[in-house]
Structures are given as C-alpha cells and as structure tokens.
Write a structure and sequence with these properties.
The protein has 8 helices and 12 strands. It is of the alpha+beta class and 300 residues long.
C-alpha cells in the first residue's frame, strides 16, 4: 500500500526554466562520472553496468572494480559534494558549487590519480546536441543547490514500489547519465526483432521485448518534467488504449505515453497517480503484445 498522506511538499516543484542551467551542468558532470563507471566496470546486459543509483543523499556509481580494490563516486546533494571512497579507506572530496565542466573534469581526474586510479574515458558528452569536449567546456558552470536533489527521491521510491509487482526479468531502478533520466524496464522474456541498422547500444538495449517507464526533467518536445512509458516493439493499437489518470496522454510523435510531473505532484495522492500511470501503460502494452502476464506478475 502507498502512503496517501504524503503532502504536495513531498513532491516539490521542479520548474525547468528556473533550474535549466543547473540541469545542463549536472548533466555534463554526471556524464563524466558515468563514463568512468562505464570504462572500468565489467559489461552487463542492456548496458546496465553504466547506470547510477539513487541514495538518500544523491547518486552513486556503486562500487567500481580497479585491480584488486574498488572505489565508488557519490554525488551528495545535501552537503553538496562529490565524494570518492575506496575499499582501502581513502576519501577525496570535491565541493559542488558553480564551476565549469572543464574545471570539474580536471579536478575529478586529478583526484582519481591521487588515489592511484588511472582511467581514460571518451571525454566528450553523448546524447546531446553540439557536444563540447569536457576539457574545453567553460559554457556549463551553474549549480543551484535548491534544485539539485529535488528530482531524485520520490521518483526512485515509487518506481521501486512498481518494480516489486513483477516476477519476470526487470531492470533495477537506475539513472542513465546519457539522457539524464530514470528508468525501470520490464521484459516479456522473448527476443525482439533484430535492429541491424541500429547502433550497438540500441541493439543491445532492445534485444528483447520491453515495457519501460521513466522520468526526466524536461527538454525537447516537452519543456517540463514528465514521466514516460513505452513498449518496444510498439504493438499495433497502443495509442488507443485507455490510460489512468485522466491527465496522461499518448504522443504520436514520440510513440510514448506521458504524464506531466506537475499533474502528479498536484494529485490528491501523488503516489497513486504515478502508480496508476505506470500500471495502466504496462497493462496496455502487455495485453497487446500478448505477454504471459499470469507467470510474470505478482498477485499477492
């Protein structure tokens, strides 16, 4: 059961126009950290080894192997610091404050070297228009601590409730730094049609049938934070399926379902509104794609 007593304040406002510069800078910072994890971590199906995870204070890489030891990198959005911890007990800290991506990149790599960790990453952002190499990016340099932690905790908490309802293969609730979004993905257990012309990441990510749910702070066609859901492959008739709550909608352009963040936070029970969206969009895709729901879903 969800807690219907959670107030609107538990789901704080997240107006894109007020923190878009901080968002853009955090996106680049998180790409640097994420690429370190991607480079040093053993590969996992669907590129899950590249993702980050929510903590009570921000985001973490989780432990990254390096030789016979491990280290992890955490964004602490309460004390506003980037913290590196090693399995040998060493700690390095970088204060999160307005600073350029170039400065952040230089200082983070120097901190790693001071710990005896040498890593070379693809030092240019992915999945963004007009990417600037990290070492040259003096354009993105904003950090507003008021907004840095707002988009994390509630989304992670409710996504984990939804994930618990599924017995089949399911991703963790994780944060993808490339697109700066949270996602949790369910699998039917069946292979999907091959995508021979797709890039390697897309081919791997969609090698099996999926229904995925996520959240991102906004951008592109939707200039505000929103939750999304999609099925891959897209079954015929998906856009005609009924949705809950009433404010949810299907985008013909994106071929995805959306529910705006403000419609969730202003609902009588934000948790229930989001869970209804996730459940109804899952049911739509699973029904039309003939998933074996009886064996995949938890009934008690």
């Amino acid at each position: 059961m969800t807690d219907s007593k959670l107030s609107v304040e538990a789901w704080p406002s997240l107006p894109l126009q007020e923190w878009k510069d901080t968002y853009a800078t955090l996106h680049m910072w998180s790409q640097i950290v994420g690429k370190i994890r991607l480079t040093l971590s053993p590969p996992v199906n669907h590129f899950w080894h590249s993702a980050m995870y929510v903590t009570s204070r921000g985001l973490t890489t989780s432990p990254i192997p390096y030789g016979n030891r491990t280290f992890e990198i955490d964004f602490d959005f309460i004390d506003h610091a980037l913290i590196i911890r090693t399995s040998e007990g060493s700690i390095r800290t970088l204060i999160l404050a307005p600073r350029s991506v170039a400065e952040f990149y230089s200082e983070l790599m120097a901190m790693l070297r001071s710990l005896g960790i040498e890593v070379e990453i693809h030092a240019k952002p992915d999945e963004v228009a007009d990417p600037i190499p990290f070492a040259e990016d003096t354009q993105h340099k904003s950090y507003d601590p008021e907004y840095a932690n707002r988009f994390l905790v509630q989304t992670d908490r409710v996504f984990k409730q939804f994930r618990s309802r599924f017995l089949g293969k399911c991703s963790p609730v994780h944060f993808f730094w490339g697109s700066f979004d949270f996602a949790v993905t369910r699998f039917s257990g069946r292979r999907a049609p091959e995508r021979p012309s797709a890039d390697p990441i897309t081919r791997e990510s969609y090698s099996h049938e999926v229904i995925s749910h996520g959240f991102w702070p906004g951008g592109g066609a939707i200039q505000e934070p929103a939750f999304y859901a999609y099925s891959a492959p897209v079954p015929e008739g998906l856009d005609k399926e009924p949705l809950r709550p009433a404010s949810a909608f299907y985008s013909q352009d994106a071929k995805e379902f959306f529910l705006k963040y403000d419609d969730v936070r202003k609902a009588a029970s934000p948790d229930e509104a989001l869970l209804e969206f996730m459940q109804s969009t899952y049911e739509a895709g699973a029904k039309l794609a003939n998933w074996d729901r009886a064996s995949l879903e938890r009934t008690s």
